[in-house]
Amino acid sequence: MNVLVLSGSPHLHGSSSFLEQSYTQGLREAGHSFITVRTAFIDVNPCRGCDSCTARNGTCIYRDGMLPLYPLFAEAERIALITPLHYTGMTVHLKKVLDRLYAMEWSLGLDSHKELDLLAVCGTPDPGEMAPLVAEYEALGRHFKWRCLPPLLACGYYTRQEIERSAMGERAREKGRATTPCPGPACNVSYIA
Ligand SMILES: Cc1cc2nc3c(=O)[nH]c(=O)nc-3n(C[C@H](O)[C@H](O)[C@H](O)COP(=O)(O)O)c2cc1C
What we know:
Layout: E1 2-7, H1 15-29, E2 33-38, H2 52-55, H3 69-75, E3 78-84, H4 92-99, H5 102-105, E4 115-122, H6 131-144, E5 147-148, E6 152-155, H7 160-164, H8 168-177, E7 189-192
Parallel strand pairs: 1-2, 1-3, 2-7, 3-4, 4-5, 4-6
The protein binds flavin mononucleotide.
């Protein structure tokens, strides 16, 4: 399986990056190909809603860091969102990238048989804190007709040190490993930012 991992945190070595590393370790063990994009470290403009893309066969007015991502979205069989909770939802960095898919809806189309996955971490131990994020995740899946996998919600971890002491790393790794093995012999791994 070809997995596009979108990481939302502005911390390169924070708690969600620990989840990401554990998840991709599981993907690797299961023989999947994946590419990780650290959305906080690429130059992507927010969608202006100008609708130019609708008149230009999906061509956005911005020629920025989103350009290499469009084919990755088109080719991915699974899109995994990995984010810390920032108040009610995913980080602005991740949202900015997802909003720019608007241009793709008018060209390549996105409603192929993709899976959507979510791994999220928040500081307070109350899982209710994640409810708006989970609702948004499910709404995204409905919108794009992507199949939502059960999310992994890690609540009660403000720092990497805290989450490293928990069982969440192993759960994220199992989540990555539990996917259907791909037929190819090798697992390709690459990173953007
Ligand atoms: C701007 C901002 C908003 C946050 N909002 C919440 C929140 O509403 N609820 C919560 O439990 N934690 C919140 N947190 C805490 C983070 O979700 C938590 O520290 C997480 O482990 C950070 O992950 P990271 O190291 O991958 O960035 C917030 C952190 C930041 C920086």
